[in-house]
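Help needed: design a sequence for this.
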């Protein structure tokens, strides 16, 4: 057991780290209870003959960014309250090799998602543009009559831009529901996996614990509306040339 002064210094250091999102103290009894919950009935043969609690008390630290795990962990190696002697379980533990492999995979997936986002955005513009173009072609005679009687280009544009607006709005709503379902599934899988300790936001679109971030909905709707309106404007250029 570390002296109170060393423990207080450790807590102060944790609080002063900008990378730390939150932290939690795990007592010896809580550590044993968690072990029993994870192993279920399998924990009884292991613990039944133990007279003392072998589980150490610890501080569980959650970082804001998964890429900061290694940096934060290294800051505790030289603290008096942290015993990093090889073979002991009282030091810094964060599954270094596993974390690095996960971060490499996450970064690769992140880059792939950005590329996929760009491709889907281009495909969305093309699809909406084609849809609006078909609508314009079906009403080309009406457009020509409006131009002959003096209608401005913006007067002609608005109905079709509204169509693109609504298409983008509906598309973004469907995308939001799909993303939420995927996130909910992944979040539940992570909670039940061995990497459940890594409770950090690893990607802007990855929600915490399957919960819906209110800031994302306006972003999705805005992007859908912009893509829909932009696709409509592209489709209208041909018919509004002087």
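Sure. Designed sequence:
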């Amino acid at each position: 057991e570390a002296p109170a002064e060393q423990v207080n210094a450790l807590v102060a250091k944790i609080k002063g780290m900008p990378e730390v999102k939150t932290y939690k103290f795990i007592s010896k009894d809580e550590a044993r209870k968690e072990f029993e919950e994870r192993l279920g009935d399998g924990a009884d043969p292991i613990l039944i003959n133990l007279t003392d609690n072998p589980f150490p008390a610890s501080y569980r630290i959650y970082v804001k960014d998964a890429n900061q795990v290694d940096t934060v962990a290294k800051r505790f190696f030289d603290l008096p309250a942290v015993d990093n002697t090889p073979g002991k379980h009282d030091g810094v533990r964060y599954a270094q090799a596993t974390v690095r492999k996960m971060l490499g995979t996450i970064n690769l997936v992140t880059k792939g998602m950005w590329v996929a986002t760009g491709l889907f955005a281009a495909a969305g513009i093309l699809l909406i543009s084609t849809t609006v173009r078909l609508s314009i072609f079906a009403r080309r005679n009406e457009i020509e009559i409006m131009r002959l009687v003096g209608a401005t280009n913006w007067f002609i544009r608005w109905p079709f831009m509204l169509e693109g607006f609504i298409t983008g709005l509906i598309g973004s709503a469907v995308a939001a529901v799909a993303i939420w379902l995927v996130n909910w599934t992944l979040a539940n899988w992570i909670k039940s996996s061995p990497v459940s300790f890594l409770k950090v936001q690893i990607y802007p679109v990855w929600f915490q614990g399957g919960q819906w971030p209110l800031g994302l909905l306006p972003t999705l709707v805005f992007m859908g509306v912009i893509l829909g309106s932009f696709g409509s404007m592209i489709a209208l250029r041909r018919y509004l040339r002087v």
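Residues 197-211 have pLDDT under 50 and may be disordered.
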